């Protein structure tokens, strides 16, 4: 490893990057980067710069409106509001409590942002999660020990736990606990299904989202219809999914969700869908996970650069 010089003042990026700026040593400036008591206060920095500037003539400069204390307080409140994770959760709850027909695109985006973190939704594509968010219904069971599903009861929904813990007691005496992000209930089928075991809440204030069997089957069953598989010599080399990013249908198209490394590289110079404008940036951020060396991309780009029709894209 390279050793840093003991005297860091010897390190210059350029001889005179800003010749009009004079360097003031930290001992004279009155504000240090770090000290025993922590960083300097704003008043220290202000006094230091004021003493360096001396009496500055400010006549002739245009006057600008100064924020009042009330406005500053409002800004502080806004910052606190956006940085508070509990308030973010309140926003999600407001979206959940709306009827499916009343959910806006913004509501669905809020729900998507929250749901994609949960294990129950982990292996689903974005379009499937989006559709599930648009039809989910919110339910709360306030008491611990409440029975949600009886053994042998006909199932009509798929449940995902958002808060709390439930216990499933099976007829053979075994039991298991499910917590936030876990799911139970029906599988994606229209066949009649029955509960095996008793599901009851273990704590107060258990919260769930429920998706009706008909909706759950329809959304998961239509995944195949929305995907387009590209085959070469009998092998699938790329899978694209059709997505609609808004309900108006104006932003829709195919997006690559799976491909061989070779096809992912090839896709760099293909026309990208309006729903996937950041493919190149995404590829460059993640290529290390599926390529052993960046030279595989570099050599291909050099090869394409010699082709007139591809040079601009390269």
UniProtKB/TrEMBL annotation:
GO molecular function: guanyl-nucleotide exchange factor activity
Major localization class: membrane
Subcellular location, record wording: Cell membrane; Cytoplasm
GO cellular component terms given for this protein: cytoplasm; plasma membrane
Boundaries of every N-terminal Ras-GEF domain copy: 252-314
UniProt keyword annotation of Metal-binding present: no
Biased segments, Low complexity type: 26-43
Keywords annotated in UniProt: Cell membrane, Cytoplasm, Guanine-nucleotide releasing factor, Membrane, Phosphoprotein
Compositional bias of kind Acidic residues: 66-79
Region Disordered, annotated ranges: 12-86
Gene name per UniProt: Rapgef6_0
Superkingdom of the source species: Eukaryota
A Pfam family per the record: RasGEF_N
Domain Cyclic nucleotide-binding, first and last residues per copy: 120-220
Gene3D superfamilies membership: Jelly Rolls (2.60.120.10), Son of sevenless (SoS) protein Chain: S domain 1 (1.20.870.10)
Protein name (database record): RPGF6 factor
């Amino acid at each position: 490893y390279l050793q840093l010089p003991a005297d860091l003042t010897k390190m210059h990026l350029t001889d005179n990057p800003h010749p009009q700026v004079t360097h003031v040593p930290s001992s004279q400036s009155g504000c240090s980067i770090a000290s025993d008591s922590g960083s300097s206060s704003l008043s220290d920095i202000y006094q230091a710069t004021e003493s360096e500037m001396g009496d500055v003539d400010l006549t002739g400069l245009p006057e600008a409106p100064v924020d009042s204390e009330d406005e500053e307080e409002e800004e502080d409140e806004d910052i606190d509001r956006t940085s508070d994770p509990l308030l973010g959760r309140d926003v999600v709850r407001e979206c959940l409590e709306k009827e499916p027909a009343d959910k806006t695109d913004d509501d669905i985006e809020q729900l998507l942002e929250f749901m994609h973190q949960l294990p129950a939704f982990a292996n689903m594509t974005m379009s499937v999660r989006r559709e599930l968010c648009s039809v989910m219904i919110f339910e709360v069971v306030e008491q611990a020990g409440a029975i949600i599903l009886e053994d042998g009861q006909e199932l009509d929904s798929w449940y995902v736990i958002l808060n709390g813990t439930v216990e499933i007691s099976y007829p053979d005496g075994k039991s298991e606990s499910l917590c936030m992000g876990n799911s139970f209930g029906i599988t994606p089928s229209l066949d009649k299904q029955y509960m095996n075991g008793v599901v009851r809440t273990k704590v107060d204030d258990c919260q769930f989202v429920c998706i009706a069997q008909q909706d759950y089957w329809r959304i998961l069953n239509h995944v195949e219809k929305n995907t387009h598989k590209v085959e070469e010599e009998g092998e699938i080399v790329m899978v694209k999914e059709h997505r609609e990013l808004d309900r108006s249908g104006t932003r829709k198209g195919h997006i690559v969700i799976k491909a061989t490394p070779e096809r992912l590289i090839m896709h760099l110079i293909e026309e990208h869908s309006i729903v996937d404008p950041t493919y190149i940036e995404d590829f460059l951020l993640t290529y290390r996970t599926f390529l052993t060396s960046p030279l595989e991309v570099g050599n291909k780009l050099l090869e394409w650069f010699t082709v007139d029709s591809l040079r601009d894209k390269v």
